[in-house]
Amino acid sequence: MSVRVRFAPSPTGFMHVGNARTALFNYLFARHHGGDFVLRIEDTDTERHSEEAVKVIYEALRWMGLDWDEGPDKGGPYGPYRQSERLDIYREFIEKLKEKGLVYECYCTQQELDQMRKEQLERGEPPRYTGKCRHLTEEEKARLRAEGRKPVLRFKVPEDRVIRFKDLVKGEIEINSRQLGGDFVIVRSNGMPVYNFVVVVDDALMKITHVIRGEDHISNTPKQILLYEALGFETPQFAHLPMILGPDRSKLSKRHGSTSVKEFREKGYLPEAFTNFLALLGWYPKDGKEILSLEELIERFDIKDVNSAPAVFDTTKLNWMNQVYIRSYPIDKLTELVIPYLEKAGFDLSAFDRKWLERVVEVSREYFTVLSDAPHYMEVFLKDDFEVEEDAKGFISENPDRLRVIELFYGKLKAFEGELTEEAFKKLVKEVGKELGVKGKNLFMPIRIGLTGKMSGVELPVLAELLGKERVLRRLENSLSKLRG
RNA sequence: GUCCCCGUCGUCUAGCCAGGCCUAGGACACCGGCCUUUCACGCCGGCGACGCGGGUUCGAAUCCCGCCGGGGACGCCA
C-alpha cells in the first residue's frame, strides 16, 4: 500500500513554526516514499475561522516549497478537504455509533462540568467526566430538554483496557483507558462534531497510512484508537514529533518572540534556509551533512531518525544558514528578493540599471544575515549625499595629512581621463600616497571616509568602479565640505 | 494532582536498539590566532556535555532499578 500522509492545520490566522515543521516532516516522508501529501483544513470550530486564515496556510506552505497533492484548492479523490464541508459524512458515522450503542447524550452544562473539574482537582484527583448522564432515562432527557438544555454526544470509554500503539518515533506506548478522562465529547451541543472524532473519520476515509503530528497529540491517540475500532476502521501508524521549545524550555509560543512563518519570511530569511533549519530540529541525516536542499532532504529523510527529545528553537544557527544560502543564491533571484526591502527603506531604484544593481547585490551580500539587512549595506552604493559619521570626522581631524589625502585624491581624479576601473582607482590612490608620503590606514581610511563617510565597508576599488568617476567626485565634494565646515 | 513523554557541550545533534572502536565526534555560537592597509568573509586552533545514585559486567553514554529535573496532556480547542 502506498504511503499517504496529511497535514491538517486549523486555520488560526498564522502558521506557527511548530506546524511548519510538522508539515515539512509529513512532506519529506511522503516524497521520500513516493506517496501522497494531503492538505486538510480542520475548521470544525467554526466561529474562529476565516478564508483569510486558510490563505495564510497556503502561502506559508508554498513559500517553503511544500506542494500538496490533494487539498481544498486542488481537490482529489477523497474530498472535500475542509472539515466544515464534510458535516454530512460525519453525521453518517455518528449514526453508526448510535446504532451500536457506543455513544450517549449528556446534558451537563458547562458550569456543571467546570464545577466538577474544580472539585476533583481540589481533592487531588485527575479531572475526568464521571459518566453522570450515561444512564439517563427517556423521561429524564425529556425533562432536561424542556429546561432548554441541548445535549452533547459522548463516547463510552471502556472501563479498564490497556490501549497500546507503536509510535514510529517514541516506540511502544501504552495507557489504560481509565486515564482518558472519562467519556469524551464527540459532538457539541450545537451539533458540530469535535476534533478527536472527525480526525479519525477523515484520516480513515482519506486512506491516511501514517499520522505524523506533534507530541502534544500523544494523549489524543488512545481516544482516537478507540474510535477507529468502534467505527471498524483500520488504525494508521503514528509518529509523534518532539516538541519545539522556547529558550526557557517551555512549549514555544508567541511570548518567545518570532514564531510565525510569516515573520521569518518578512525578516528576510530565505525559504531554503528556513526549511533546512527546521528539518534539523528533531531530525539529523545519517551522513551528517547539514546544508541540504529540499531534494537532498527528501532523499535522506527517515522517520526512524527523528529524535524523541524536544528541541529548543534557537535562531542562531538559522542565521548562519541564511548567510550560507544568501551567498550561494542565484544573483538575479536574490536581487529580485532584495528590491522590496530597498524600496521599503525609501530608496528610489528607478535611476539604476538592473545589471548594475545585481553587481551591487553581489558585492554586498557577503555582509547580509537576513535580506532586511540589505538597505543598510547597500546604502553606500545608492545614496551620494551621506553624512560623515562622528568617528570618521574625529579620525580626519586627528591629523591634517588625512584631509590632504582626500583633497589630493579629489584633484587627481578630477584631472583623470577615462573610466574609473578598479585598477585606475588603485593607481590614483598609490600616486596620492607617494606624493604625500602617506601609506596604510592613513592613506586608505581618508579615502574611504571621503567616499562613504564611514570607517568600514566594502572594498574601495570595487565601490569606486561601481560608482563611476562622476559619482565619486560628487561624494568627495560632499564629504570635503562637511569635513572642512 | 494523575497519566504520558523526555534528559549527551550554551544550542542543534552523532553515538544508545545489537556494551569495548568514546581520551564522547560534528555543526552553530563563543574565545584566540592567521589572512586582509577597514569591517565582514575565509583558514587554523581553543573552550565546552554523557542529570544524580545504585546495580549487571572484565568493561556502560550505551542494559536494569531508583531518584532528581524538564516538558506535555488531562475542554462542547485543534
Summarize the structure in words.
A three-stranded antiparallel β-sheet has the order 3-4-7. Strands 1-2 form a two-stranded parallel sheet. A two-stranded antiparallel sheet has the order 5-6. It is built from 19 helices and eleven strands. It is elongated and about 110 Å long. With 485 residues, it is mostly helical. Among the domains are: 86-241, HUPs (Rossmann fold, 3-Layer(aba) Sandwich); 384-484, Arc Repressor Mutant, subunit A, CATH 1.10.10.350. Strand 5 and strand 6 (171-176) form a beta hairpin. It binds one RNA strand of 78 nucleotides through helix 4, strand 6, strand 7, helix 6 and strand 11.
Helix and strand topology:
Layout: E1 4-7, H1 17-32, E2 36-39, H2 51-64, H3 87-99, E3 103-106, H4 110-122, H5 138-146, E4 152-155, E5 162-167, E6 171-176, E7 184-187, H6 195-205, E8 210-214, H7 221-230, E9 237-241, E10 244-245, H8 261-267, H9 271-279, H10 294-300, E11 311-312, H11 316-328, H12 331-344, H13 354-364, H14 374-382, H15 390-397, H16 400-415, H17 422-436, H18 441-452, H19 460-484
Parallel strand pairs: 1-2, 8-9, 10-11
Antiparallel strand pairs: 3-4, 4-7, 5-6
Helix pairs in contact: 1-10, 6-7, 9-11, 12-13, 16-17, 16-18, 16-19, 17-19, 18-19
This protein binds one RNA strand of 78 nucleotides through helix 4, strand 6, strand 7, helix 6 and strand 11.
